[in-house]
Fold this protein.
Amino acid sequence: MAETTDNNKPMIWKELVLGFAVIESCIYHSIRTVPIVTASNAEEALFTDNLSRLTKLEGGETVKGVLQVPFPTYEVTGSVPVEGEEFSNVLLLGYEYSGVQPPDWMEVLKRKAANPEKCV
């Protein structure tokens, strides 16, 4: 769901997280998690990689299980339009959990867009 819809303004999306897939890498001897999110409509399913995250496992990776999340949990992403660019980068801002006060996502987006390499 988009909070801001003007083409010239920053946009923020919240997508429902159903759980986190636990993935083991035999090559790197590591464990990572990947959120399992829903698409809110058919168009979103076709034009985002939300539904393909789990189908893009690297060689030597296996799904070991799924972690449950409290309902509702949202993955929050955002983008800031860049003048002269048709598409802007989509940045992962964080997660929003029921019962926890969320940060000002627009401020998080502004900080992250200004310095995408730095953790904010």
Summary: Residues 80 and 113 are 7 Å apart (CA to CA).
